[in-house]
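dumping the sequnces here before i forget
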Amino acid sequence: PSASDPQLSTSDKAVATPKANGSQNSPAKVESWSPSSWTTKPIKQNAIYEDHNKVAKSLAKLERLPPIVTPTEIINLKASLRDVALGKAFLLQGGDCAELFDYCEENVIESKIKLLLQMSLVLIWGASKPIVRIARMAGQYAKPRSSPTEMVNGKEISSFRGDILNGNALDERLLDPSRLVDAYFHSATTLNYIRASISSGLADLHRPLDWGLGHVQDPELQMKYSKTVESITDSLKFMRTVGADTASKALETVELYTSHEGLLLPYEQSLTRLLRDPALPGATAPTEHKSWYDTSAHFVWVGDRTRQIDGAHIEFFRGIENPLGVKIGPTTASSDLLALLRALNPSREVGKITLITRYGASKVRRLLPEHIRTVEQSEYARTVVWQCDPMHGNTRSTSTGIKTRQFSDIFSELQEVMAIHKEEGSYLGGVHLELTGDAVTECTGGSEGLGEDDLSLNYTTFCDPRLNEKQALELAFLIAASITL
Ligand code: PEP
Ligand code: MN
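..and the predicted 3d for all of it:
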């Protein structure tokens, strides 16, 4: 038998013991689940490599490498998401659709962290609640595709499936197993620079932030946004003056977690480890109990195309301790919704599951209320984080075939979602955005007034169109203003 058989991989040897209180992992789940049990299930978006020996070598290498994130961090995020589920905090998640290895670069990383930080300040101001920040970064390298091939210059070639699988260049479309290990190192290097920048004061709010609102042409909007910034700046100044900042570290640093779609299961499996649970707050002795942690990122989600209830991805996801996202949309049956929650969170941990809703502005009013009622009138009431992804239901093509999204559609879906949650008595816990800190021209609209003719100016995404830094910040201002209503 070859070691490329994921069933035989080394991370599969240890067997978890049921928790003493039995509340987190039911014995049935522990008996039947293993990091490779997904291999017995039907799989969508599967990666079929030519050279199995090379795959085995890459996976063996990954299994030896240290965790990228730790159980303590994962559990801390889960505790924060519990607050979000309970309506005590708000979740901001954002980053590229397809993160490229080339984005592992000082300026690209910094501009994205700064943008997420600024957006979170605006949201704190608007929501008067703590903001939990998760970057779609340091591992967002695998993409599900609607078609395995595409036509280029009259020739049918394999689609680009993300840097962890193949390259976008036309001569790099063959799946390359060495990219699995490359992904690990780019992920670790990106996270290293995120951690280093934050601990060196990139997020130090004692420093003035450059808000760059010069592009806002509408004088009324310019005034509104400037007022918000002024108010944020004044609050920070006040805290410094009264010494609130020396009493706590809150102004010097922020928490920023990482996330990606858990699409490529051999990669996720290799980084899934049986590790000691962190001690509970107030505990006098370290815990002996171990759980399975996917150490590739703090938060992983299952995409709209791979969330089949009997499929490989749900099988893998149900066994890990990490907080999980599930994309849901127009094709999600309400009965599937409960089946998913029961499979992924049998013990009904609050905040364990984030439902990332993505319907499109024109469909959300018809579809979201029933999904909310299904969950909130079940035994899962008040356990999930409801997060709005206003991007993926609003993708369209221009008449010349460019994939884009309109800023007004994105905000319109968000507004509808806020209104619907209010009507249903549920809590919109967060937003999930595709954005970049750079001045790209991929989505139309916003205060710069980007039109379809402008898309060609700086259209650099290899997958879905992202909000540029100005559009993303503007969306944060708009959300903040709507939340305070
Ligand atoms: C994505 O988040 O980039 C994505 C592919 O989304 P979805 O699974 O919702 O289509
Ligand atoms: Mn996308």
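The longest strand covers residues 428-434.
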